Request: fold
Amino acid sequence: MGMCPPNGSIIIAEYVVSDGPIANLYKDEINSNEYWEIEGDGFMPDGTHVTLNDNFKIISTTDVIFGTASENTALTQLIAPHVSRSYVLANETNYRYFFKRMNMFSDVEIIQGSSLQSGVSML
Reply:
């Protein structure tokens, strides 16, 4: 954990794929009398047969929103967080994020060099 993968390693990035907005269920549609139907019947403790559809009505109080319009993979990579989950300053992106998050500097420039000469320039 926290180790850089060796050169030549294969890194797999997986993205959630959905049907987009057409996969959403809106409460007006869900709450129509024809949307929900309970299959099967129930029984009272004494064994009396009960038709569940006659006795229960399922109502949604909110829309079920799982789908959104697709976005470009490059945009997703751009807006994805650049923070290290282990709070380790391991690369240029981690340093830039750390200093920008302080809201003390108008510009942050990371300059790479040897371990003795590396530095962070803050304006």
User: Anything to note?
Assistant: The two ends are 34 Å apart (CA to CA). The CA atoms of residues 96 and 102 lie 10 Å apart. The first strand starts at residue 42 and ends at 43.
